[in-house]
Amino acid sequence: MGNDKKLVEQITSQEKDFAKWYTDVCLKAELCIYSGTKGFVVLRPYGYALWENIMHSLDKRFKEVGVTNVAMPMLIPENLLLKEKDHVEGFAPECAWVTCGGEEVLEERLAIRPTSETVFCDYWNETVKSYRDLPQLLNQWCSVVRWEKETRPFLRTREFFWQEGHTLHATKEESHDFTLKMFKVYEEFIQSELAIPVLKGKKTEKEKFAGANATYTIESIMKDGKALQSATSHDFGDNFAKAFDIKYLDKNNQLVYATETSWGFSTRIIGAIIMVHGDDKGLKLPPNIAPIQVRVIPIRTTDDNNVNKAKELMERLNKSGLKVDIDLSDKTPGYKFAECEMKGIPLRVEIGPKDIEKCVCVLVRRDTGEKIEVKLDNLELEVKRVLEIIQQEMYNIAKSFLDSHIDTALTKDELINKMNNKKGFIKAMHCGCEECETALKDETGITSRCIPKEQENLSDKCVVCGKPAKYEVIWGKSY
Amino acid sequence: MGNDKKLVEQITSQEKDFAKWYTDVCLKAELCIYSGTKGFVVLRPYGYALWENIMHSLDKRFKEVGVTNVAMPMLIPENLLLKEKDHVEGFAPECAWVTCGGEEVLEERLAIRPTSETVFCDYWNETVKSYRDLPQLLNQWCSVVRWEKETRPFLRTREFFWQEGHTLHATKEESHDFTLKMFKVYEEFIQSELAIPVLKGKKTEKEKFAGANATYTIESIMKDGKALQSATSHDFGDNFAKAFDIKYLDKNNQLVYATETSWGFSTRIIGAIIMVHGDDKGLKLPPNIAPIQVRVIPIRTTDDNNVNKAKELMERLNKSGLKVDIDLSDKTPGYKFAECEMKGIPLRVEIGPKDIEKCVCVLVRRDTGEKIEVKLDNLELEVKRVLEIIQQEMYNIAKSFLDSHIDTALTKDELINKMNNKKGFIKAMHCGCEECETALKDETGITSRCIPKEQENLSDKCVVCGKPAKYEVIWGKSY
């Protein structure tokens, strides 16, 4: 068990230093590693497999609502990026710029896409002529680059992976409805596959996406009480269509502006998975998206019979449609168990000579540590049953945590005190003006997370400035 | 039928101008469109769906041999790129360079990856310590940028999509074997899924990949007789390991250099699919990778009964696992047929009121134009049977074309004359020196395509210089 201890000792405890714990888990679970390019990470096989599972599952949901994938150019001419005023102010300061191609200095510099609204608009300007061409429901899976000053794995890196959906519609009603439709797709995916409960609502004017009429956001709570924005869906109305002159002939043969949405979801979510579910032993992955759902560990690897029986179990489970592997290395069982835990493998199956005699094996849950002896005859059924329970209970626990970390405040002092003591989300009224939000953020680091759809009238006054309140806002400190 | 004609008239015939025909098909079949970024194209939904099918099918084959996916940084510091001498000479002149990040001028410029050997080596230098860490069988699906002067859709664009596999091994034997293993994976995939017959062999010293000991290539023949390099697999031995100091502790506790391979396959192959199979009516896709395998067309769209029956057929075929859609638009049947042909949909199912009375429908093959009346009861079975025949016959026809376009030459004049008259591949002996190849290429545009494994001794003299021959080479003009 000496080795076992060593592996866990390599990560800092959450209580001691949550930020350090987070980075330790990213590296020790082999999700990623820092690369030779400053601010860029390598997604290692285990981390990329996790992202692949997320992609496949989400892509399927996109296709079910009629979205198809495309690939737009990675480089955007500066003039194209400058066409929509708010958008360029939001993104130009953090672009990486290509100024030389081969040995030639470019006449116009090109940005590596920080996001692709402008490129999709340019494409539609060329291809959309009539109402028959609408709606356009497009998406791309790609990476984007934003020149961040401080970086942290998954949460903020200069290059990150994501999908960006962009759609074009005939009317403002249609783009509004579609914005909410994709918002719902994200919500269901995050809750049911990632076992992460969500808070959702509209962003304030200050926090909305550069160029959008409205931004809808899904916020999740991390174990340190901080918020993480997990997915956003933007309704642009005809803002971009006007800037890019995207008109179509409607059924009455009139040229009218089209309307647009965009919606995105990135590898940031891996940061959320780590910080919502993880513990001092490492990562804890929800079975639905775990690259390895079950690992089989023969207790005595020098015993051929034990090894063969373990292989047989692996094959049976693989055949039943689960993602299973086996650890046949010469490490000690204790070390292997610790490794399973570090990597967040939802369930391990232990089998030793005595178990074989009794025709049983032992399932060990990563989430609770519980050991369950099962008859070999019932293996597949039992493993699937336990994985479903794990998925559900991981969600329940995260939901309790979220629910117990939402409070209310009537005054600024109360807001600040509660935020400092308990962390989490705090509901409070807001006058709606950007200055209040900026002042509060500068003073305390607290930001508005969203305006929830179900509004409560906690008081008549803005929690910051005391002027008449416009709506209830959920506040928090965020990643 | 007026509309019908119009659509076909939009593409130039192959005989009139093959290059123009090619571009017309790319655009009119809506595979891609030129973008606002010079030298970059947009992969439109239909083109990207084709690439997705190729990716999924090939990725499955990679995973079956134990390869896992990762994601490496898109940007490479100049110093890292400069580490391997031959490699940098091959790629540095065509890199796109990032010189500004946000508002900061970078101290060291960064290349957008033209290929990622250097990045993988840097990663292994950090992560590989012992023989237990080997082999490393990695791959990434991504886009790369090379600053080409002249561009053509799929064949040569400044950004293109590909997979690049990179593996690290313990010995030169292992890297050699793995290079050939992946070469075989490509060959089988290209032949069985894309219905493209291949010529294969080793590249000459002049044509091999920058930094490799040996490059294995798969060459295909286009309908204009020109060659297209469809996939390559490179054996680096320990060249990169020495440049990047990648050593591991072997079983005897000795520090030794690792060995490496890389292998790539890109959206260029879409160019090959177009030019191997296409005709004057447009694209012709092999059923195994067609985004739409079958399109159902009701002859009378104003007749509810006809439309409902057509929908029923679509649903039945979809349920049987095929990729099927339906054309319910108000275009004429003739126009719809032409559109099916332009997009290369392997099979269309026509059904009209008279067919419904007789309980039949008509299958129309894209490859031959053949019409087959089938009983509705037998629909699924018949459609699958015909799709299999199409896949096989498309391969057979392409194979006959390849076989009838391989000739031999004993002298330079014969080589040039035959190449000018008949096109295709020509087998001829070669002394092995780079100067001969360069001279021939400069004079005639003819290049060595590969050194086939099965060598014939056609003569004792080099076809170019007349000096003693070293081996037989297959020559051609290439894209």
Describe this structure in words.
The structure is a homodimer of 479-residue chains. Chain A has 479 residues and is α+β, with helices and mostly antiparallel strands. Chain A folds into three domains: 7-277, Bira Bifunctional Protein, Domain 2 (BirA Bifunctional Protein, domain 2, 2-Layer Sandwich); 294-386, Rossmann fold; 406-476, 2-Layer Sandwich (Translation Initiation Factor IF3). Chain A is built from 15 helices and 23 strands. The first copy, chain A, has helices spanning 2-9, 18-28, 45-64, 78-81, 85-91, 117-127, 172-192, 239-244, 268-277, 304-319, 333-342, 353-358, 379-403, 412-422, 434-444, and strands spanning 32-34, 41-43, 68-69, 75-77, 96-101, 104-112, 136-145, 159-169, 199-202, 214-221, 227-237, 247-249, 255-257, 259-266, 294-298, 324-326, 347-351, 360-365, 371-375, 406-408, 425-430, 447-450, 471-476. In chain A, the strands form six sheets. The first copy, chain A, has a seven-stranded mixed β-sheet, sandwiched between helices. In chain A, strand 10 and strand 11 form a beta hairpin. The longest helix of chain A is centred in the C-terminal third of the chain and has 25 residues, at 379-403. Chain A starts with a helix and ends with a strand. The model of chain A has no long low-confidence stretch (mean pLDDT 95). Chains A and B meet through strand 2, helix 3, strand 3, strand 4 and strand 5 of A and strand 2, helix 3, strand 3, strand 4 and strand 5 of B.
How are the strands of the largest sheet of chain A arranged?
A: 3-7-8-14-11-10-9
CATH H-tier superfamily of the largest domain in chain A: Bira Bifunctional Protein, Domain 2
Largest interface between protein chains, with number of residues from each side: A-B, 53 and 53 residues
What's the tally of helices of chain A? 15
Oligomer: homodimer
In the CATH scheme, what's the topology name of the largest domain in chain A?
BirA Bifunctional Protein, domain 2
Please tally the β strands of chain A and state the result. Answer: 23
Q: What is the CATH level 1 assignment of the largest domain in chain A?
A: Alpha Beta
The CATH architecture of the largest domain in chain A can be given as 2-Layer Sandwich
Task: Using the alpha-carbon principal axes, give the shape of chain A.
Answer: globular
